[in-house]
Amino acid sequence: MKAIKYFLRYTDWVNARFGWFVAFLMCPMMFIMIWEIVMRYFFNRPSIWAYETSLFIYGGYIVLGGAYTLLTKGHVNVDIFWGRYSDRGKAILDICTVGFVFLYLGVLFWTSLEATIKSWQLRETTMTYWAPPYYPLRTTVPVGCFLFMLQALAKLIRDILTVIHGKDLYPPQVKLI
What we know:
177 residues, single chain, mainly alpha, 7 helices
């Protein structure tokens, strides 16, 4: 039981830290977008790099933020049935559907890992005039999938404990500071 408690705490800690880091990706993205708006509309001098850079940052933000969203229970549930159940009933329903989560994330992880490895080997760039490297963005997908799978496993463990004990003995402790 001590190992389970450690795994849950460590997984929550890692994903809370990633969530904290990823949240700050919005700051450079906003700066870049403001820069581009000012340059384009006030000086009539649009850049070739701002749009693509903001897309890269936003892509990383979305992919790396999924595990934190699961940690904080921010993903959408279909409330038709789920909202009416007790905590134990919700845990049972989540246990029954977690296989789809692992199947999806597993396939996404392996296919994105292959694409990422090829991208790093080829030093892939985008097909624009600026042609920035594409492989750092591709790297965020398998990393994000791995973190999401860890958090999904932690949630599965919590759901099993909830079914056994009737309540969550180790709720997530989301402390960013």
